[in-house]
Amino acid sequence: MKISDIYKNKGKKILSFEIFPPKKDDELKNIEPTLDILSELKPDYISVTFGAGGSSNNNKTIDLARKIKEVYHIEPVVHLTGLAYSKQEIDEFAKAIADAGIENILALRGDINPNVPSKNDFRYASDLIEYLKPRTDFCILGACYPEDHPESPNHVSEMHNLKHKVDLGAEVLLSQLFFDNSHFYAFEEDARIAGIDVPITPGIMPAIKASQIQRMVNTCGAVLPEKFQKIIDKYGDNDEAMYDAGMVYALNQIVDLLTTGVDGIHLYTMNNPKVARTICDGIKNIINV
Ligand code: FAD
């Protein structure tokens, strides 16, 4: 099923998870306990990340997505990055994805990495969307950034580029993680003013380890609100306390988003079923009210 149809037809909030493929072959079966728990929570779809090039892990993304569909009967979304690949390589990935019966891709540029040369066929996600749209039957999703992409020169060009991505065929947008909902609300309003009318789903990552939070903030440029910085200052050295505080913070973010009226929640699970379960237990009686 196409993810755009899930958003159109469900008449409820859409719950989705993101997972990543294990690095080693023999770990693919170890992801089963995670998937067992994630599937119990009945997400509307699960997206699977894709390497930005330089690794051979990307076929594992497709294998894992196929497993999600065939074994767990949950709709998968395969992330697909363009920057490090040629048109021929993208054609091969697209064929493998379609042959696996997968109908949805999240079309991405991929991060610029000095160790992975870019191939110039797909400089931006919009190039990938423009290429795939007339050649394939995928429902295409795109990424968006409530606090603007770290490389963005200004907010106006960010909005302009996002609108271009949607005009070329992105039917659903998934957001980068953020810790301050006011950024998401301002971004969503600007996107609507810019004429972007597709579902925009906020991405939430429960931040449960102080070291991981710093890494995430450095990579994606999300601003840590003072309220959250205080949590790290107080509980950062105590794993159990940081877990509890990080989960409560994420749950508060989700409840605020749901009560304000978002299309759904995309949860970055970090392949941690305990995190997904804690969140789902916390919102099970409110997600569809
Ligand atoms: P783009 O949409 O191309 O945007 C990148 C920057 O270029 C933006 O500032 C944009 O405004 C600008 N831009 C766009 N078009 C133009 C243009 N025509 N002219 C000038 N500037 C332009 N990375 C992975 O490697 N694997 C993953 O699985 C993965 N999953 C992700 C999932 C989500 C939900 C998100 C939010 C990110 C994910 N990423 C992943 C990270 C992503 O690859 C990086 O953030 C990357 O730097 C940008 O990708 P994009 O598709 O948003 O790029």
Task: Describe the secondary structure blueprint for this structure.
Layout: H1 3-9, E1 14-19, H2 31-40, E2 45-48, H3 58-70, E3 75-81, H4 87-99, E4 104-108, H5 125-135, E5 139-144, H6 155-168, E6 170-177, H7 181-193, E7 200-204, H8 210-220, H9 226-235, H10 239-260, E8 264-268, H11 273-283
Parallel strand pairs: 1-2, 1-8, 2-3, 3-4, 4-5, 5-6, 6-7, 7-8
The structure holds flavin-adenine dinucleotide.
Flavin-adenine dinucleotide binds next to strand 3, helix 5, helix 6 and strand 6.
Question: Which regions contain 5 or more consecutive residues with pLDDT less than 50?
Answer: none
Write out the distinct hetero groups bound to the structure: flavin-adenine dinucleotide
Number of strands: 8
Q: What order do the strands of the largest sheet run in, or round the barrel if closed?
A: 1-2-3-4-5-6-7-8
